Amino acid sequence: MSLRLRTHGRLFAIALASLAQQSLGAQVITLSGGNSSLFQAGGGSISIFSGSSQCTLGAGTAGGQLMQGGLCTYQTSLGTYMIGDSRIGFQLPTDIFDSSHFLLVRGLGLNRARSTSELTVYLGTSAVQYDSPFFNGARFSTPTALVFLNKRLSPHWTFVSDTLIDRKLTAIEGAEWRPAHALSVGFAGGLGANQPFAAASIAFSGPKIELKAGYYLSGSQFHRIEASSPSLDEQNKENLMVVYKPLKVLTLTAGHENFLVPVYPSTTNSLSSVDQAGLSLGWKGAQMNASIFHSTYQQPQAIKESNHAAALSLTRPLYHRFSLSASYLADRPKNSVAISNLLATIHENINSHLDLSEIVTYSSGHTNINFGGRLLTRYATLEANYETFYVPADNAQPLQQMLLLDLKTTLLGRLHLHGSSYVDPTGHIRYTAEARTILVHEPPEREAFVPMGRFVVRGCVRDTEGGIVEGAAVVIDERPVYTDSSGCFELRESRQRSHQMRIEIGDFLAGGNWQVTSAPETVVSCPEEESEEQTFQVIVRRVRTISQDVVQEKNEVSSRQ
Questions:
Q1: What residues form DSSP beta bridges with 205?
Q2: Using CA atoms, how far apart are residues 173 and 93, in angstroms rounded to an integer?
Q3: Rounded to two decimals, what is the model's pTM?
Q4: How many CB atoms lie within 10 A of CB 33?
Q5: Where are the alpha helices (DSSP H) in 366-425?
């Protein structure tokens, strides 16, 4: 079996490489790679964008195993055909607290999106150990078939049906009723990995009150996706979150949540809960926040742990360049010694490029001094900040202060580097580091290409000074494309259609910090002979520093006056 799967893996990679070779007339080729302890993965990939087709090939390690794979898509009037490793969203109408669930499969698929419905069909194998943002690598697992349907029945009702068959059965039906823009009611029920599941939720967002409430009834080992991940927790039993704003300066918060948390790297669930209440008060430039917590955590066949904690903070600007914040943190674990921390932080704006922060911590008779800040330049952005997190999985010390780092830089014009650290639900520091670059393929004029459709969507991205922006990320109907060396891109299709469009400034391959000045939300394809006249324009501007932008806006206002 192992030899056969390895052989299938090689044949699968060869098939994807053959498909990618057909796209060498691409307008943009991107290379990316990185490593992440948050995702337990590292590797790299190459992506080729060409008209209505896109291919991505990658290889690396995930969970300590070497994997390879990729994904090729081809867009037609019937839908988008897929071959390879796909990351498919798995959201239910009751996911009002967390909508980040997804499914990983390898094989052949079709996604058909229309104005009132979306259908996804896939046949192949599951890829439960694939979990990487850097490459589409996986390994063959159990045979899998899925059918996901999202259908809007009326302006107020939406029906959802998600069926997945592999070693275990997942079949969940759901519906959402949205009688008004501010109110939604969700229902869902069925099986998840052979475990029963039923849920109901309500969400309301008004000018003074926001409410989220849901009840989730499921088996103790329920998973809608049988995969090990440090971030795939599920809501359990009763959940409630209320935010009330009786005054413009006052916000009150109260919540109760229960979770099924996988004991990573296994899929065995532990039980966790958090009760919280808090208030936020702003008055004449000062900001005060106060919160209290009660949490429980219980691993399988272990004694339940619990903890009480409180947090109080006050922030006040002192002078033009200084601000002071103070925090008091205390937690009292059951059957353990109470712990308290006093923190004072001074923020200083040195100049338009540099902010500094000094953090003084007093705990158990010891004083510590830490430093953080932000450096913002045209070519790089570095942030280092100490933040306080409440981690219910660590009942001995749930209030934890951790240093988070974030670095973005661009080298040689096209090499974009990004590294950052995160805190997972168990309180461990995880990191992600990645590199991306862009290559533009300019085919010789003598080469002949077969058009993929006579209708074209063509757009160009320029900065406010009229310069081209190469590697700008544009999303057309949830499909990403990038501008080439001329700052433009085009998509071909067999018939004229209207498309939703947005600009993803965080994914620009050119690096730097950007803001969108003007961009259409809807674009329409046109006959190829009219594409030059009907090319739409997107205008962006590079954000140099926050202070410089404020000064520039003040100057523009003064000039208009």
A1: 210
A2: 9
A3: 0.61
A4: 19
A5: none
